[in-house]
Amino acid sequence: MLRLLRWLLLLLLLPPPGSPEPPGLAPPSPGAPPQAPDLLYADGLRAYAAGAWAPAVALLREALRSRAALGRARRDCGAYCAAEPGVSLPAAPGPDSGPGAWEPLLLRAALRRAECLTQCGARRLGPGGAARLRVGSAIRDAFRRREPYNYLQRAYYQLKKLDLAAAAAHTFFVANPAHLQMREDMAKYRRMSGVRPQSFRDLETPAYWAAFDTGLEHLGRQEAGLALPWLEDALQESLAQVESCRAGCEGPEEQEREAEEEEGTGSQGGLYEAIAGHWTRVLQCRQRCVGDVATRPGRSLPVPDFLPTQLRRLHEAHAQVGNLSQAVENVLSFLLFYPEDEAAKTALDRYQAQLGEPRPGLGPREDIQRFVLRSLGEKRQLYYAVEHLGASFKDPDPWTPAAFIPEAFREKLREDQEKRPWDDEPPQPKPLTHWKDVLLMEGVTLTQDARQLNGSERAVLDGLLTPPECGVLLQLAKDAAEAGARSGYRGRRSPHTPHERFEGLTVLKAAQLARAGAVGNQGAQLLLEVSERVRSLTQAYFSPDRPLHLSFTHLVCRSAIEGEQAQRMDLSHPVHADNCVLDPDTGECWREPPAYTYRDYSGLLYLNDDFQGGDLFFTEPNALTVTAQVRPRCGRLVAFSSGVENPHGVWAVTRGRRCALALWHTWAPEHREQEWTEAKELLRGPEKDEEDVASRDPGPEPPSRRLPRLQDEAGKQPRLREEL
């Protein structure tokens, strides 16, 4: 009954059908305390699963608003209580004070600060304050990945609100650029007549990124005067976002326990060990905030030196328009980070010479001074904890002065900061005898190892499929192609060459087509089984001590277009690496988006050999020197690590149709292929579904990362997310 009342109440928040809605999400009602975001999100997913689209929209939107309000309240209460005179920390006791005189002063101040935060939280968040609105790690991760927008876009689509559906889809896609289903949905939205280009707007990205990018665009057009207000706004908003992040570091005890497990800095012993452990975790979290703020949505790495870069842009722009005092102020601020930077010192000398006589009071920006001094003070405490308490700390800033770092840690820190992400060598495979011991698949033989393939982390294995199994998968690919199930590639031409046709099929699409009767269930089931077979074999050979997870599975066929093969000079697939952006001119491979940086091992399982061309080949990082070549055949697996050590391509297919199962594996469990699990659930027989449902508790479960884990009050499995 309470849930029904909540749905009815939130329905009142929706505008009437056909009325315009403002872009983004409207603020909550003034003065109304936020509700628990996790409960709202759970109810929203249940409404979505039941097909109640309007309540789902209201609940999911309110969950997003509530989470934002919770963050603002924590930030504001932290700032208020830090500035409140009655709860400020005491001054250090004088030298004449007795032993232990500081202890009651410090603990009394801590109690007063806690009282202030509790009362402020109750005023802003209602009875119970922040303790009532604690959010578990799974829900926090879902919001960080913007998963509510994935469900919102589908619900808006069902409500015929295409503008808002496109905005929600775009918001999710910005943070999840590798999400295959959303990529397909975005393409469909672009083809819809009711969707305009301006509909694709990001409802979540902080404003400082737009200001920063706009400022850089003006600078690129030599419009320094127009760039300055944007760059200044970007810096101010970046600093404000850092403060907001830091406020979250003092979150509820539940979050701190999870941080303890992640960081391995759990406290042992008595009161002061516990205080030291908790404070160390808070400082570690605060130090990470600059990196979090400097990371664009959908990217895994922060923009290097984000704040110093903004200061450099500002002093250069001020100098271009003749604001020399502001130029001096910003270059002095930059020198707080890098006091020995020659370019900055040269610019400072030039600005001061142009100003003429010295200007008293002209110094670095106060906001940057406060930031640097506070950050250095925290680093000093953290390095003390590292040296004397066994704590761990990975300094995110390359500008930290060497004097702050204990001598025993300086060399390792320098190596860590200079090391590029792709410099880590993947673990070498165990000896073949160990691989044979763990291999339980009969009939599989090692045909070529890394030495025979003139490289590292490469292998060719035969016998993974029998000819009848290859035939079943070939028929599956053919039936799916006839059903129009190409995975996001518009038209029939290959995305890599105009001389071939390209057809792709994912495991989830195969399962959906099998349930619809468009393809055989045997082929879809075999596709799942074979992908798991390849994963277990790849793990046994390359990574026996570290679990591998499937990150993406794709059944692909390339067909030569008749009449277009004469004097053909291109490749079926250009030379590339699978987890980094290859630069053949320098031989380097940049492990950053748009590459799928989380991929660790790749596999190609071939289904046929009745075609011309289409051999796989490996090259040096220059993409020119071929080091090995492999001819496809039924049941042959080519497995290799996904980095710069294994650039590869495919020779042109000049006649016939070449089919293979492409698989990528990851060590990161958060990047495992969710569609694989969904496909497995979808292919289960109805009798097994009924048995499972009967054996489950009919009560609803809390929401998890994926909707199919939820159940409604009747204990029924909710329907899977459909395509548009």
Automatic annotation (TrEMBL):
Source organism of the structure: Muntiacus reevesi
Comp. bias intervals (Basic and acidic residues): 680-699, 709-724
Gene3D superfamilies the record matches: q2cbj1_9rhob like domain, Tetratricopeptide repeat domain
UniProt-recorded name of the protein: procollagen-proline 3-dioxygenase
Cofactor(s) needed for function: Fe cation; L-ascorbate
Family as reported in the entry's similarity comment: Belongs to the leprecan family.
GO cellular component: endoplasmic reticulum
EC number: 1.14.11.7
Lineage: Eukaryota, Metazoa, Chordata, Craniata, Vertebrata
Signal peptide (UniProt feature, chain positions): 1-20
Record flagged with keyword Iron: yes
Annotated keywords: Dioxygenase, Endoplasmic reticulum, Glycoprotein, Iron, Metal-binding, Oxidoreductase, Repeat, Signal, TPR repeat, Vitamin C
Reactions that this protein is recorded to catalyse: L-prolyl-[collagen] + 2-oxoglutarate + O2 = trans-3-hydroxy-L-prolyl-[collagen] + succinate + CO2
